[in-house]
Design a protein that fits this description.
globular; mainly alpha; 215 residues; disordered C terminus
Length: 215
């Protein structure tokens, strides 16, 4: 890891720690740098605004989820592993993430930006599991996985167990509902079929209404 990458990770961690302790309205790149004892001039070079901190956090979460992703086994199992890896990254910054999610409803622009960013992340999660996220079907799959993510994240917010068993159970349920919905729409094969099949990854609509989907 380069010194730049280490600095950026340290500042992101400081920002989420600051958000947890003082609220996200207080979080800026400068405030995070001061909170973490980091160089202000370097913070300015790396992060022009708070949005860039959140963007970097999202990329780090995706990288953590995709690192060592399995290339064999059922697609459902691969997706389960990747989504839980992303949850594991959030767990490392749990208090800051929860504070951010509480702040999001008060900032509509941030909520819209996070929703778009999350949709892009879902494309990476699908591709990591060997499922195409391209074209119209890919767009439907990303929307579907975003709904699964929202359902899982809602469970994670309430899950204070060390092994995150409730979160894993919620993810398993969401993937089952997504698989069933895909079968109903296509009348063909389930999510766990080969990545090249025609099954679109679209869960039941009510899953996507959860406000926790913005990270």
């Amino acid at each position: 890891m380069s010194s730049t990458e280490r600095f950026e990770q340290d500042l992101v961690a400081a920002a989420f720690d600051l958000g947890a302790s003082q609220g996200w309205r207080r979080v800026t790149a400068a405030a995070a740098a001061r909170h973490g004892g980091l160089d202000l001039d370097r913070a300015r070079r790396s992060f022009a605004c708070t949005g860039m901190i959140l963007a970097r956090f999202g990329r780090l979460a995706d990288m953590h989820a995709l690192h060592g992703a399995a290339s064999d086994g059922a697609v459902r199992d691969r997706l389960f592993d990747i989504v839980m890896r992303r949850i594991d990254f959030l767990q490392q910054h749990r208090a800051g993430v929860i504070a951010l999610l509480r702040h999001v409803p008060t900032d509509p622009l941030l909520a819209c930006w996070l929703a778009r960013a999350n949709l892009a992340s879902m494309g990476w999660m699908l591709e990591g599991a060997g499922v195409s996220a391209a074209g119209l079907r890919g767009a439907l799959r990303k929307r579907g996985l975003l709904a699964v993510w929202a359902w899982t994240l809602r469970a994670w917010l309430r899950d204070d167990s060390e092994d995150l068993s409730a979160t894993m159970a919620a993810l398993d349920t969401a993937l089952t509902r997504a698989e069933q919905a895909a079968l109903q729409l296509n009348g063909t094969r389930p999510l766990a079929a080969d990545p090249g099949d025609d099954a679109s990854f679209t869960p039941e609509p009510d899953l996507s209404a959860d406000p926790a989907e913005g990270i």
